[in-house]
Amino acid sequence: MIANPTAERRPLDMLRFALSELKPRAPFLTPFNVISIPIILVGLVILAIRFTQGLGSVTNLNQEFPWGFWIGFDVVTGVALAGGAYVITFVVYVLKVERYHPIVRVTVLNGFLAYVFYAGGLFLDLGKPWHIINPMIGNSFGYNSVLFLVAWHFVLYMIAELIEFSPAIAEWLGARRMRAFLQSVTVGTVIAGFTISTLHQAGLGALFLMAKGKIHPLWYTEFMPVLFFVSSIFAGISMVIVEGTLSHRVLKDHMDAEHGEFDKLIFGLARGAALSMFAYYFFKALIFIHEHHWNLMGDRWGNLYLLEILGLTLAPCFMFAYGIRNRSLGVVRWAALLAIIGVILNRLNISLIAFNWFSPNHYYPSWQEVWITAMIISCEIWVFRWVVTRMPVLRKATGFD
Amino acid sequence: MESYTYVNIFETKGLENLLVLSFLVMLVFLVRYINRPAKKR
Q1: Does the distance separating the beta carbons of A292 and B30 come in below 8 Å?
Q2: pLDDT in tens, A303-330
Q3: Are A380 and A78 in contact (CB under 8 A)?
Q4: Contacts of B3 in chain A (CB under 8 A)
């Protein structure tokens, strides 16, 4: 049943309608379901063990490596890859580049779900998860701490993204008056959300400033906040390209003509990614020269650094440029994929691989940590699919302007 | 491993200035490159 309201629905009707929408629509035994359901079920068992036996029962974390895969990948990397939402909303609502309007809702939805599930990842990683409320209520928390800022920004940005997406929920429910109000606050929310987002993208980099002496000098720099922010721009755009390409293949039946023309937008997105990557590369080069890092080249850390900077930053940057000039969607998509891998490697290098690099002990995630990450991603895709197949995300709602 | 290292910012200034200049010049070329479609063969 597709929402097609011509008049305001009564609250009870909205509730009845929302409950009726919970029923599954598509065939149950799809390839994705067959893979994801066992992942989620086993993940629930691991979570039960984690919450009853403690972190040490399912993770390889210890006093030397207190932050592991859930922080390094789910939170630090995931937030960078969710950066597409603030970039696209800024471009559409502030710079008024209307041709990207069809992808605003799906990008905001992706960003919102990413934050909800990655904050969930943070919840799992706390030794005493019920203390997660402390930064909100100011209970024994350092107000000058970067973590305090990041915690508040996460919550505020999730609320901002929910408000940005809420006109779609109002259209789905047929709540015309609510939708008119939510539309009226969108631009203000976008400006607030953009400000908060840029600050906490940089804030995640600032979290690692305290780890001077623990992070390998090739990755440690006092400019980490700036680098985290700039890299989140092209990480987010690359993610929009990859996710858009995938969802336009898988969810084609749920799109109208306007939303189906994603390919035409890819080159514009790629232009933004190429220019921001180019600037990022030169930032890295400047820091490299300024910090006298030539003597750190030649060993395996130097090789890893070169792989990240030349192979997974500069190469995709030029691939984007080549793809735009030659109108090659294939090259642009591969460039986006390489750029995403580059950002993942960068965040993992800072938070895990090059962290305590001098120590004889090394941290490797346990299979349970990797499994839970797969479970989080599977759950996110389930929710995304449910929303997109019901709400006007990839199509215009009938009966609304 | 925490130790204080003194970085002489003037030692590398010349190279840094050259790098910034080359960035600005190459940025112009990059923008021109991506804004002009390739000639069809």
Answers
A1: no
A2: 999 999 999 999 999 999 999 999 999 9
A3: no
A4: 213
